[in-house]
Structure formats: C-alpha cells, structure tokens
Fold these 2 entries.
Entry 1:
Amino acid sequence: MEKSYVAIETLEHCPVCKISVENADNILDSYTEVDGRRYFYTIDICKSCGAIYSVKRSKNQCFYTEQYDAEKEHSHQNDQSAPLISSCIWNVETKKRQVEEIISFLQKPSNTYLEVGSSDGTLFRMVKQRLQGSGQVFSEALLIESSGASNYCSNIEGCQVINQSIMSKNVMLPNNTYDIAVFSHCLEHFEMPRDVIKKIRKSLSDDGLLYIEVPDGMRCDRSLSYPLGYFHVVNYNLLNLSWMIRSEGFEIIDLIQRDHYPGIRLIAKKSCLFSVDEPLKESYFWAKGALNQWLNAVDMVKGKIVKLNIEKQEKKVLLYGCGTHTRALIDALPYLELCDFTDSNPRIKLFNNKPVIPIDMVDFKIYDYVIISSYAYQDDIFKRIVSTGCPFEKIVRLYDTVFSYDQGF
Ligand SMILES: [Zn+2]
C-alpha cells in the first residue's frame, strides 16, 4: 500500500519550538488524493509547545508552483482587472475585518506593503481601495504568491508581484523597508515558519508591523475532515503562535480568536527583545483537548450515517465531494468506499481508485441517498443538487450548523 504514496519525508524538529520530533505524540496517519496520487501525512502533537503538525509527510513542491492552482478549482479567484464586487469575493466577511484592522495601523500619508501568500490579490486591492478612501496611498507594494493565483495579481495596478516561494533563494527582499507584512491564511503551509518570519523581520522597517491570520488549531472540532488535511503543515493555537513570534524578535500588540472562518489573528511589532522563555505547557493540553473534541465530532457524524442502515439494507449511495472530507469519512466507515463518487471539479477523475462520475452525468433516480461529503461547502452543494433535480428527501447533510465562511457570526 505504501508504494502508491508520493515519497514520504520525516521532519527532525517541531516547526514551532524546534524540539526533536521524538517529543511528539502521534495521533493518526492519513492521506489525501490529488490527481489519483496519494499524499501521506501524520498528525502529531508537540509535547513541548502544543503545535499540531505532521512529523511525516509526502513532499510535493509542485502544489506551490504556477502550474498548480487549487483555489481556482474552488472558484476562489477573481479577475483583478474587473471592479471589486463584494458578493463575488471569497470569504469576504473575514477580508472586510482584516482590511479595517490593517488600515487602523497605517497612519502615514504614504505606506509600504508586503503580502506573502497573496492568492489572487483581492485582500491587497481591498486594503488599497480603503486606504485611498482616507486620502492615503501605498508608495510601494509587493505581493508574493507561488501558486498559479499569482497570474491574477499581475493585473493589479500599483504593485510588484513575485511568483515564487518567499523562501526561494532568488527572492531577495530589501532590508528595513515595509510598514506592514501581511500573512492571511498562509503561515500554516510552511514547514519552516521561523525561517519565513526571520526573512520578513529583516525587510520590515523599524516600526514595521507583522499581521498574521492562521486557522485556529483549537477549533478543528467542527468538521470530520482531518485537522491538518495535508496542505496545512502546522495547526497553531494562541499560545504557541504568539510564543513563536515573540521568540523571533517581536512584541505582540494584538491577538484575537475570530469566529468567522475560525482563525487566530496576531499583530506584532519589531522588538529588540527575542524572548527566551519556554513555551507554555498548557498549550499541549489545549491541543490534546481540541483533538479529543474533534474525535467526538467524528463519532457524531458516524452515528448519523450508521442510522441510515446503508450497509445492512444494501442501499445505493452517492457521495458528493472527493476531497479530504471524503477520505476521512471512508476511514471512519470503510464500507462507504463501495459508494459512487461525484465532484463538481471536473479535474477529479479518480477517487479511491474508482472513477468519479461527472456531476452532469449523475442520475439521481438510481440512488437511495446522496450524502454531501463536505463541511464548509455543505449548504452550497445542497442548493446546487436540489436545483439540478435531486429529490430533497434523498439528500443527507451531515452537519446541523456550518460555522465558517460567509455567514457572519
Ligand atoms: Zn513544538
């Protein structure tokens, strides 16, 4: 079975506190599938700092090159030569909050801006527009995005775009330049976040600010999907994120948990103190508790499917969604691998070694149940399949409430 996985690498140290991986608790092993290939990863908790991360993981840097553009497939990108339209912006409620926060720290008439993992550049455009509204400008802006989303950034006026990883040796940042460096849902993708922060610190001006938002590792208990899901290498919590940033020569000036698209947002300024205290032991118990809560959530979803009696009564079932959520669902209830699969993404042709039925070829009449295998997109998918003629009573929604994206608090 191992043979079908893309080559697996093992970390030597916790990405957050640098202690040896021998001090990590292994919680589980899993994999995700992209283009029919399996990418293995483990979920571990660092006993020293409570970071949830993958000690072992298949390596594929192709996911962070121009050739790969996962967000496009989820319709998360917009044509940046067109006007900004709020209803078309992905996760717009979080972005609006971020814009107000960023603007509140930019007091000068002319400012310099750096964003790492800028995706299609929407956040930068929103900040720039809002800044102009208060009579200020960006004298310089640099967007760094290694995936194909960078192509959208190049249509934005008034910024430079680098379509390589920030950690590439070719990416040389000017010293002591930027008033603010923004990481919005980006830092969790790095295996060596401290090196990224070190590089950014040098490029910030003396009173420069670091603005970071990452998913909240304490709130992975809403969905059946694995807390890391392969693409995220580290799940942070309030304690270990702020500790790591302080120990890289910053002073935290604001730190919140955001309910909307559950995240942690941290704002820090450059400091000459590099804190040398140990990470708080409580952080490990927090992480452990969050993963236990998540296991309870998995049991609840399992209970909902068991009640359908699919296995005993030989029901014909279609699973809608071929991502990490479905991987987790099949791991929890292996008999579900006998179901048919469909997905709205036409690029996904194979899942679990079975052909994926293109969504427009699905005949809903032949199924007893259509299970929506997604957390965040559950309600969107529900509306879509009802509108394409799937009888309401056949549809199984696994979650009573979905707490993320654009539904506000
Ligand atoms: Zn650690």
Entry 2:
Amino acid sequence: MDKQHSVMLVDDSLAMLGVIQIHLKETEFKVVATARNGDDAIKAFCEHKPELVLLDIVMPGKNGIETLGEIMGIDDAASVIMASSLGTRELVEQSIELGARNFVQKPYEREVLLDVMRNVIDHNQTTQ
Ligand SMILES: [Mg+2]
C-alpha cells in the first residue's frame, strides 16, 4: 500500500464512527483520532494535525459548522469534508463557504466516501 493518509473522524454517533472505521479498513486512510463533539474535535485537530477531517454537521452543543469555522481559524489549509444527512443542503453550502472541501451524504456508502476522500487528497497533492 502507498503512503497512508491520516484522518480524523468527528460524529456524535458512536455507531456512525464505527461504520466509517469499517469502511476505511484496508484502505490508504488511517484513522488517527475520533471525536464526538466539536470541542474534542478542535483539541484533537491541534494535537494530531490530520491530513483530512470528516466532520458531522448535526451534533449537540457545538455543531459541525461552528467546529469547521474554528478549525479553519486554526489552519486555513485544513482539508475538511462535511458529513450531512438529507435536508441539510443549506448547511452544506454554508460549510463550503467557510472552507470545507467537499461533503458526503449520510448514510455513508463506502465507495462514495472513499471517492470524496481520494479526490480531496489528490487535489492537495496536485496543488502542493
Ligand atoms: Mg450527528
């Protein structure tokens, strides 16, 4: 396998975190941190500096949009992919305006998730 890319997963649902981790098994992506709320996500982002962040939008407390804003304030080159369920189109658009690189629709389909993640990594590699 080529070089692995570090990823942080953020979702308030433990079950959802489990699903994503299964999807990423035996791929080039290595989960270096998980968080279940915005504050923990920001702390873990600073600690691990992951190449990619997969960030749930709907979370109790600090939501994904607010969390995204703080992450981009810490590192404006951060690569963040938002995760949204149906009916959150406006939130997705807001996220892209704030600097998110892309979004994936929940529930996750493995191939779609991997495609979106690979596109962001490829884009980073060609613009470096
Ligand atoms: Mg959620």
